[in-house]
Amino acid sequence: MKKSGWLFLALGSIFLLFSTVAFADPSVIMSEGKYVLGDLDTKKDAKVQAIIEAKRMAMEKAGTYLESSSEVKNFQLSQDQIKTMAAGIMSVEIVNEDWKMFGENMVLTIQIRATIDTSNLKDRISKMQEGDNTESLKDVQTQLAALQKELADLKKLSQQSDSKGIKKPPSQEMKDKHESLVKEMSVLEYMEKGDIATINQRWEEAVEAYGQAIVRNPRLIDVYARKAYALYFLRKLDDAMAVTDQALAMDSSSVRNLGVKALILKDQPGKVDLALITINEAIKLKPDAPRLYRFRGEVFIKMGKYYIAQKDFVRACQMGAKESCARAKGLEEKLKGAKNK
User: Fold this and answer.
1) How many other C-beta atoms can be found within 10 angstroms of the C-beta atom of residue 59?
2) How far apart are CA 262 and CA 246, in angstroms?
3) Residue 51 in contact with residue 110, Cβ under 8 Å?
4) Contact 115/27 with Cβ under 8 angstroms?
5) Residues 259-285: what's their mean pLDDT?
6) The pTM is what?
7) How far out from the chain centre does Cα 302 lie?
8) Are the C-beta atoms of 124 and 315 separated by less than 8 Å?
9) Which residues are CB-contacts of 130 (< 8 A; sequence separation ≥ 6)?
10) 132 — pLDDT class (breaks 50, 70, 90)
C-alpha cells in the first residue's frame, strides 16, 4: 500500500477513536465559549462571558439530547420547556482555560464538560411543569441574553473611531454603564444557580446562591422568598421566617413571601390559624396563582380539614399545577377509603 494510503487509514482510525471517546456517552457534552476582550473588559468579565457562551452551546446540545428521550416525548414539552429543563439537569465543570493574543486583543477560550443527569426524569418533568421556579429560570435566562446584547453593543460603541480614524478611550459614562451591566449580570447568574438548585432540590446550594444574589442587590424581594423556601425544606424554620419577615418589611404585599411564610407558620406549634390568615391574604392579592392554592391545601391538611384541602388541590390542578393533580387524587382516594371503613 502507498504511504498516502497508510496515512489515510491511520487518520481514519484516529478519527474513529476520538469519535468514540466524544460520543460514547451522550449524557456528557463538551463545549467551548470564546470572548474577545475590549477596552472596557477585565479578565474576570471575559471569563464570565466565555462561560455563559459555553453553557449556552452545551444547553442547546443537551436540549437536542433530551428531545430524543421517551419521557420527554411522552410529556410533549415545548422547545422552551426542553431548554429550561436542560439547564436544570446539567452540571458544568471547566476543563480548560486558554488566553491568547489575537492582533491587538486578548482572546479567552473556555472549554467545559457538561454532564446531564437524567435520573428520575419523569418526576422532574412533572415538577417542572408546575413550579414557578422553572418560569423564574426562563426569565433569568432571557434577561441574561438581553444583558449580553447590551454589553456587546456597548463594546462596539467603545471601539469606534472618529472621522479621522482615531480611536478614543472609553468615556466615563461608558465605563459606568459597563460596570452596572456586569453587576446586574452577576446577580442574575446567582439567581440562575439558585433556580437550578431548587429545581433539583439541592437546598443548601440554593440557599447559598440566593444569598449571594441578595448581597449584590438587597431589593430583590422575590429572591428572599426563594431563599426562605429552600431553608424551609432544610427545616431551618426560624431562619426561613427571618428571611420572609425581612422581605415583607420592605414590601408587605409580596405574594411570594406571604405564601412561603404561610408554609412555615403551618409547621410551627400553635400557628396554623395564622398560616391560614397569611395564605388567604396572598390569594386575595393574586387569585390566579396555583401554587398558593396548593400551599393553602397543605395548611388545611395541617388543620385536619381534608375535604376543603382536596378542593384546593383540585383547583390548583385545574389551573395547570400538575403536581397538585396527583396530590388531589391521592387525598381523594384517602378520603374514600376512610368513608368506606
Assistant:
1) 22
2) 15
3) yes
4) yes
5) 97
6) 0.77
7) 31
8) no
9) 290, 291, 320, 321, 322, 323, 324
10) low
CB within 8 A of 327, min separation 6: which ones?
A: 294, 297, 313, 317
Higher pLDDT, 86 or 40: 40
pLDDT of residue 133: 63
Task: Give per-residue burial for 288-309: e unless 16+ CB within 10 Å, then b.
Answer: ebbbbbbbbbbbbbbeeebeeb
Closest alpha carbon to 56 in 36, 31, 19, 77: 31
Rounded-to-integer distance, Cα 240 and Cα 225, Å = 9
C-alpha cell at 323: 403536581
Among 283, 292, 339, smallest CA distance to 313 is for: 292
In this model, does residue 289 exceed pLDDT 70? Answer: yes
Which grid cell sits at 255?
405574594
Task: Please tell me the distance from the alpha carbon of residue 139 to that of residue 206, in angstroms, as a whole number.
Answer: 17
How far apart, in whole angstroms, are the C-alpha atoms of residue 78 and residue 135?
A: 13
pLDDT at 322 over 80: no
Residues in the chain: 341
Asked if 160 and 176 touch (Cβ cutoff 8 Å), the reply is: no
Mean pLDDT of the chain: 84
- Round to whole Å and give the CA distance between 125 and 129: 6
Whether the pLDDT of residue 11 is over 70: the answer is no
Residue 36's beta-bridge partner residues?
107
Measure the CA–CA gap between 45 and 181, rounded to whole angstroms. Answer: 11
Backbone angles phi, psi at 170, to 5 degrees: -60, 140
Pairwise pLDDT comparison (1 vs 126), residue with the higher score? 126
Asked if the model's pLDDT at residue 2 lies above 50, the reply is no
**Biggest alpha carbon distance in the chain?**
92
The amino acid that residue 9 corresponds to is: L
Which are the contacts of 323, defined by CB distance < 8 A and separation ≥ 6? 126, 127, 129, 130, 131, 294
* Across 2-11, 29-38, 108-117, least confident range: 2-11
8 Å CB contact between 55 and 92: yes
Q: Indicate if the pLDDT at residue 13 is higher than 80.
A: no
Q: How many CB atoms lie within 10 A of CB 105?
A: 13
